[in-house]
């Protein structure tokens, strides 16, 4: 089994961007990848000081941007597109 982390635009693809998907061996590996994505994009997207708590950081980021994320278990490990910077 693998876990897929997918970050995509909320509701629709208004900018024409494909979802970003990465495969991970387990959920514990996918969660740090999500946190790294949020930290890399925080300054450009939020313009405020980030919270120190990782869970609060992720929750606050995705409540304000036009993106959503999903971590799901799957039998496939095909990666559609790597997260930039990884």
Shape: globular
Question: How many alpha or pi helices?
Answer: 2
- Overall pLDDT score: 85
Kindly give the count of domains.
1
Fraction of helical residues? 25-40%
Low-pLDDT sequence parts: none
Terminal residue distance:
22 Å
Report the sheet-strand fraction: 15-25%
- Count of distinct strands: 3
Describe the structure.
With 86 residues, the chain is α+β, with helices and mostly antiparallel strands. The protein has one domain (2-74). The chain is 36% helix and 24% strand. The protein has 2 helices and 3 strands. The chain has helices at residues 27-46, 54-64; strands at residues 2-9, 20-24, 67-74. Strands 2-1-3 form a 3-stranded antiparallel β-sheet, covered by helices on one side. α1 packs across α2. It is globular. It starts with a strand and ends in a 12-residue tail after the last strand.
